[in-house]
Amino acid sequence: xxxxxxxxxxxxxxxxxxxxxxxxxxxxxxxxxxxxxxxxxxxxxxxxxxxxxxxxxxxxxxxxxxxxxxxxxxxxxxxxxxxxxxxxxxxxxxxxxxxxxxxxxxxxxxxxxxxxxxxxxxxxxxxxxxxxxxxxxxxxxxxxxxxxxxxxxxxxxxxxxxxxxxxxxxxxxxxxxxxxxxxxxxxxxxxxxxxxxxxxxxxxxxxxxxxxxxxxxxxxxxxxxxxxxxxxxxxxxxxxxxxxxxxxxxxxxxxxxxxxxxxxxxxxxxxxxxxxxxxxxxxxxxxxxxxxxxxxxxxxxxxxxxxxxxxxxxxxxxxxxxxxxxxxxxxxxxxxxxxxxxxxxxxxxxxxxxxxxxxxxxxxxxxxxxxxxxxxxxxxxxxxxxxxxxxxxxxxxxxxxxxxxxxxxxxxxxxxxxxxxxxxxxxxxxxxxxxxxxxxxxxxxxxxxxxxxxxxxxxxxxxxxxxxxxxxxxxxxxxxxxxxxxxxxxxxxxxxxxxxxxxxxxxxxxxxxxxxxxxx
Length: 520
Hints:
Blueprint lengths: L21 E4 L11 E5 L4 E8 L2 E6 L24 E9 L8 H8 L6 H6 L2 E11 L2 E2 L5 H10 L7 E2 L3 E3 L3 H11 L3 E6 L9 E9 L2 E13 L2 E14 L2 E8 L5 H9 L11 H4 L3 E2 L5 E6 L12 E5 L14 H7 L32 H21 L1 H18 L7 E2 H19 L3 E5 L2 H4 L6 E2 L3 H14 L6 E8 L6 E8 L2 E10 L7
Helix pairs in contact: 4-9, 8-9, 9-10, 10-12
């Protein structure tokens, strides 16, 4: 820690450089004493130490390179600085279109020293504050993490571009793991509560725990080992897409000889979509029928499974049915056309209003709204961890459910009751934040005479409800109400989103006809 000190009995000056403390790699089992460890989310992004004084914010990377100009919106911290300044440790993050931290969009920001207004709108960033090193003329970094964390929370820095994420006790590790996996994070952090900050050191008082996700995938083909056409160098994987199987990468099969024999003996077939030229040249493609289990660390920007590892073939009676479902687009190409029927009415917004969102919950919403929701949710959970742990746990589970729902955005249709479950999870989170300013009602399908298995576009209702809350109700000082109505008018069953608030008469923001049972 350099640059700080006392001159002639004056107030200590804020340090100019604090080399960041570095985590070692570990496992959850390495932390055994709940009284000495905290568990927190790991954030994919650009590690930075922020030096904050009134009127100025300076950001230095982990290698002491200035990145202040790349992230001008983080200047909002300056307005919150006490007279003696702040030094904060944290990570600059950018969210992808599903509201998850991702290096892809962040690279666009780090590639420029002065982002223009358009780039700042298209790829907003936030600062995830994870530690407090200096506070109003005091060397806080010498305090144990438990006290540094408490002082950080008392500063109330959380806001639209600033996230102070929740910190949980070790007894909540399973819940944090589940949420991190659903949200798409690639790791957790374990931090010793009873030790000071250790500038520039990599230490086992702070452990980074990588997360691996397990799922089933189609065995789409294989490539032979160089010079050994009878041996498998890698298995080629696919997952269902809107128009059929989509290539998602390759995985080594290792020494699984029995699995290798089964794969080599499978019937030949056609390649999936999206196969790179370099892979297609030597591939042996297989007919659908084989599924395997793989572990991976999320998805890359190109949609590939990140660092997959083989976990064996899956017996036919344990395979996920969705792997082999024929998408509607592919089925239509092979089935003779039926007599034309009237097309269902599309989702409609009220007359004179902008069209309501349709399709995915994130497609029509900007990344700024995604950041707004994610940060508000996690900042709310963080504020409840100490004061109301059961409520914080409940909201965290709801956030995990919403993250899982986002993964279904590319499916052709989901059941109405599944869509409404995601809407309930979202409204539960927002009602905690809004309090009495937001009331919500969701009709019960049985009471409304609507089939709960009716097919709806995935997350379309959720997108409409989010728009109602964030664009129609939140800006109104007195708040308002949103009602998810299930109706059976003469033209058929449907779902409507009605909004009510003091500055406008009740209106229907969104209307969606419900299709036949989805059969999901």
